[in-house]
Structures are given as structure tokens and as C-alpha cells.
Amino acid sequence: MKEVRVFAPATVANVAVGFDILGFAINRPGDEIVARLNPDITGLKIVAITGTGDKILPTEVLENTAGVAAYTLLKHLGKEDLGIELEVHKKMPFGSGLGSSAASAAGAVVAVNELLGAPLSRESLLYFSVLGEEVADGSFHADNVAPSLVGGITLIRSNESLDIHHLPVPQNLQVAVVHPDIEILTRDARAVLSDTISLKKAIRQTGSLASFITALYTNDLPLLGRSLEDHIVEPQRKQLIKGFDDVKKAALECGALGCSISGAGPSVFALCDSGYLAQAAGQGMQEAFALHGVNSQLYVSPINQDGVVIL
Amino acid sequence: MKEVRVFAPATVANVAVGFDILGFAINRPGDEIVARLNPDITGLKIVAITGTGDKILPTEVLENTAGVAAYTLLKHLGKEDLGIELEVHKKMPFGSGLGSSAASAAGAVVAVNELLGAPLSRESLLYFSVLGEEVADGSFHADNVAPSLVGGITLIRSNESLDIHHLPVPQNLQVAVVHPDIEILTRDARAVLSDTISLKKAIRQTGSLASFITALYTNDLPLLGRSLEDHIVEPQRKQLIKGFDDVKKAALECGALGCSISGAGPSVFALCDSGYLAQAAGQGMQEAFALHGVNSQLYVSPINQDGVVIL
Fold first, then answer.
1. Contact A210/B19, CB-based, under 8 Å?
2. Which of the following is catalytic: B32, B85, B87, B133?
């Protein structure tokens, strides 16, 4: 039976300066999704979910992130009755702030699209994968899904219209991501955020955002470092991440350009201007977590430029 | 006696998406400043101020924007006792939202620096001209001074550290600026602004800011148009500008990419992708003001790339 297996990369959203509008992909970890034609069944069926540890993901298509993403794509193509088996192999932790559900949704649409002979372009798959992630997250937003799907650093001007832009990736930019063994639910991470921000902080934040974008276009890593400041979300969310201040300090002392919370946390990322520095910063961050009694996993990677790949 | 005469251009600050962090220069209007060596006097003296209509500007050096800018530069150079006459010829209205005091400050430092044989670079004059504008405005901010001094579109990452960046100017970009005969004091324009903004609006605004910067780097004028949205300041300040909604509507109906308030107002600017469209949009805006019984002046110009020029 014809099948397609894909890898969908983890992603770092928010990126200190771009709450809900910026994200980038990393090489590892990520999810594997398999889509397989099965003429003996009718419609889409989730036949396997692995790697969820002691958590349980729904196998009902319309309750599952990958399922919804794949189903809405099939429905759009008028193929919702085609017999397709879907396997979801989670190879990254849930609730890590690394876009776990987004990766499953992005992987599912690419696998199914490829299985059907790739009728849609990669970009036009975005809508369906965002619908999929909405099941897990409760809101329609593309800051994890877009970079997982297409790779690179992506800007979402508008989630409503999915006005998405690919930003340039400076040479030498490397990422250290540390995932501590701390659990934060996305809804708790949202709950600690105030509904309002001061105009003064907004001005500082927008200055840093604009210069971050400028730094990407001009390959100016020192400017990128000066720009990686979060005056709004990080101060509110760091309380949920034991040892965060020391972890960030360690990253900067190891030469990172900047360090902040990945997505809703608890993962913490540092951007660096070499793989060597990213490794050093990552180890420094792990040691700082360890001093607070927190175990962690380290991933060092360039910015992933590929997005979902067919294996 | 040796003298230097300069022209300092008007500027549009905020630019819809970059409150307190973005500004650009236009070719007209602007101020002329003359600095002249006079060995018969000691220190800096303001000997003429023209073009102020029925307003009076202080002739006391340390109370005058141009005076403070020039004096602090001279003091920095150890030349504060040198006999220098300063003339300030205002060729643009006060309180117009076109950076009138910033132009005087920028012009004064360039004129004095040139008179002394240009010991400082254009960029290092910025600090002194911002100090000058602070006298008029009460706050240390560079969003008008920087583009008047160096031209182009400028980004201020941080006013504290004067971390200023030159942004690229898309080909064909043209500006229509309409100055209506309405008086708004900068402090009133500040007073109508709420100290806080909603996180939701901040997210929309930052998406538009980031895509505006992206549009400048990619020469993508349709994206620039989609990005020219002010969800925060314009809705609060437009009440001070009689007829604003109709004026904006007229600009967009005439094909402008976007339209918003220049600085603290009352001037309104529209960005367009040709001089022809800018002229049409400008006339449409003037007609809309006229229907509200408001007279106005129109300036059509490309983005001024020169900043202060020596005449």
C-alpha cells in the first residue's frame, strides 16, 4: 500500500520580540507522521499514536490535531471518503513550548498532500494545519505551524488572513534550546499574562522588534543581540520556569546573543553566532537548571530551513 | 565673516506603525539656519529669528531649540566662548506634526559643525540635536531629529542609547503631506493617549510593524500598504483632527498605499507608489478637509535622502 512518511520539526515561537507573530524551526526534535492509502477502509482513520509516554492523545480524527489538519485538507479536495490511515509518532515532549501539536498538524497535511500526488503547494497547506493546531490550542494562530511547515524564520502579519512572510536567516546563526522537566499548560501560560501593557513598554518592545527584523535583513548579529529583549511577556511568564533568571544569565555569560522563553515555555532558547557558542550556552543553561534541581534536554541546531521533509 | 547656511527638512514621525520609533524626511517644507563667525562677540548669540508669524520663539540661547543644540555641541568641542551668530529662519509651521523644532535643532548643529571645519561626523551630531529638541518638546526622543539630520527612513531602537538605523527606501515611494489649519499642542496630543494598550491590539500592531520593515527591505509596496495600520495611536488622536476619517478615506480612494497622522498631528500623510498618485491623494485629502471647512497646504515629495544640506 502506498505510504508517505514525513518529519515535521519543532519550532520556537515568540522569539522574545514577536509575541504571537514570530517563529522559527530547529532541526531536532520533531514528529514523524505516516499517511497510507488503504482501499479497505472509508475515510481517514488514525491507526497508531506512539511516543506519548503516560499521556493519551485522542484517536478520534476530529479531536486530534493531526487528524483535523488532514481531514480538513481532504474535505477541501473532495477526498474525505478516501481510505487513509494516519500514524502519529510523537518524538518530542508535549507542553514543552516547542510546538509539538503544530509539528503534528504540519506533518499530517504534508504527508496526506504528498500521498495524493501533491495537488496543493506547501504554502496553501498552511490554513489546514493551523485549523489542526487550533484543536489542541483553542486559538487560530500560525506562529508555530508556519515555521514547522515551511522552515526558516517566519513572520505572521495577520493570523486572520494568514499573511505570512519568510524572513532571511543570518549566516552563522545557531540555536540552543533547553527543555527542562517542568510542566506548563498553554492555558496557564496565557493566564499569567495581563490583558494590557503599558504604552511605554510597548514603545521599547516595538523598537526592539523593528531592529530585530532589520538585523535579520542586514546580517547584523550584534544588533540582533541588542534587540532580543522581551519587556512584556518574559517578565510575566518566567515565574513559571524555576531558575529562569539563572539560566538566562548562564546563556549570556557563555556568549549567547540573547536568551528567552520558547513559545509558552518551559523551554528556553538562546541564539548564538556559532555552533560552538550554542553548545557552550546550552550546557551552561543545563547546568543552571541542574543547580535548581531541574533536569533538562539540550538541542543545538542551526535554524531549520526545510520545514517538513519527506523521509 | 565666514558663514554657513543650511536647509533642514521637515519629517514625518510615527509613520502609523512605529510610534516614537520611526520617522522619515520629506523635501519640503523645512527650516534654514545660518551660523556665522563673529570675532567681536563672545559665545553663541541668536541674532535673528524670522518666519514665526504671530508666535514668538525665545532668543535666549539656552531656551531655544536651535540654541541649545548648537551650544551643547560647542561646549562638547570646548568652543563655547567662540563668537558665533545664529539665525533661525522658520519656513514651516509650528505644531504641525512635521518636526519643526527638530529641523531647527538638526540644522543648527550641522551649520555650527560645518563652520568649525566639520570636526564631527553627521551621526555623532545626533545627540546634540536631540538635546536641542528636548527643550521644545520636554522629552529626549529622536524620531524627528534623526531623519531631519541624516535623511531617509530611520528607526530608533532606543532613544536612551540613540541606537539609530537607516532603513531602505523602496523605489517609487512618494509622500503626500497635508497640513490643515488646525492647532494641536504636542502636550495635548500626548494627553489624549491612554497609558496602557490591550495586548490584543499590541499583537496586531507589532505584526504590522514587522511587516512594514520587511516591506522596506523587500521593496514590496503592496505589503507596505497592508502594513500601514495604526490600531493604537491614530484611533485616539484622530478626534483632534476635524474631518480625519474623510481625509483618510479620500487618500485611500485616490490610490494611496496608506494614510495616517504625521507625528502628533494635525498634518496627515499618505504613502503612494508614484508621484502622480501622491499628487492625486494629496488633492483628494485637501478637498476632504475643505468639505469640513478646513484650509490646508499640500506637500508632495519623495522620501528625502539627504537630511540637512549646506546651501
1. no
2. B133
Question: Are A165 and B232 an interchain contact pair (Cβ–Cβ within 8 Å)?
Answer: no
Strand, coil or helix: A59: coil
Q: What is the mean pLDDT of residues B218-225?
A: 97
Q: How many residues does chain B have?
A: 311
* Cross-chain CB nearest to B167 (options A207, A214, A227): A214
| CA pair distance A144, A3, nearest whole angstrom | 26
B241: DSSP letter: S
Section B144-149 average pLDDT: 98
Q: What is the pLDDT of residue A130?
A: 96
Q: Which of A157, A195, A202 sits opposite B211 (nearest CB)?
A: A157
How many other CB atoms are there within 10 angstroms of residue A197's CB atom? 21
Inform me whether the pLDDT recorded for A116 exceeds 80. yes
Question: What pLDDT digit, counting tens, does each position of A67-95 carry?
Answer: 999 999 999 999 999 999 999 999 998 88
**Read out DSSP for B78-121?**
T-TTS-EEEEEE--S-TTSSS-HHHHHHHHHHHHHHHHTT--S-
Residue in A with minimal Cα distance to B233: A199
How far is A145 from A131, CA to CA, in rounded Å? 10
pLDDT at position B190 is 82
pLDDT of residue A176: 98
φ and ψ at residue B30, rounded to 5 degrees = 180, 175
Which residues of chain B make contact with A20, given a CB cutoff of 8 A? 203, 207
Averaged pLDDT score across all residues of chain A: 96
Question: Which domains are seen in chain B, by residue range?
Answer: 3-167+306-310 (3.30.230.10), 174-302 (3.30.70.890)
Task: Please choose, from the candidates B187, B166, B85, the residue with its C-alpha nearest in 3D space to the C-alpha of residue B122.
Answer: B166
Contact A108, A129 (CB under 8 A): yes
Q: Flag whether pLDDT at A24 surpasses 80.
A: yes
Is B227 annotated for ligand binding? no
A210 with B208: Cβ contact below 8 A: no
Helix (H, G, I), strand (E, B) or coil at A10: strand
Contact B205 A210 (CB under 8 A): no
CA distance A122 to A133: 17
Q: Which of A37-46, A185-194, A222-231, B236-245 has the lowest mean pLDDT?
A: A185-194
Q: Give tens-digit pLDDT for A2-21.
A: 999 999 999 999 999 999 99
Q: Which residues of A are catalytic?
A: 133, 186
Euclidean distance between CA atoms A195 and A198, whole angstroms: 10
A21–B contact, CB cutoff 8 A: yes
Of the pLDDT bands very low, low, confident and very high (cuts 50, 70, 90), residue B95 is: confident
**Do A54 and A113 touch, CB atoms closer than 8 A?**
no
Nearest chain A residue (CA) to B143: A207
Residue in chain A closest to B198 (alpha carbons) equals A196
* Count of pairs with CB atoms under 8 A, one residue in A, one in B: 112
Interface of A with B in 204-223 (CB under 8 A): 204-211, 213-214, 217, 223
* B21 has a chain A CB within 8 A of its CB: yes
Eight-class DSSP state of B238: G
The per-residue pLDDT for B72 is 97
DSSP-derived letter for residue A283 is H
Complex ipTM: 0.95
Q: Residue B232: list chain A partners with CB under 8 A.
A: 199, 202
**Is the pLDDT assigned to residue B106 strictly greater than 80?**
yes
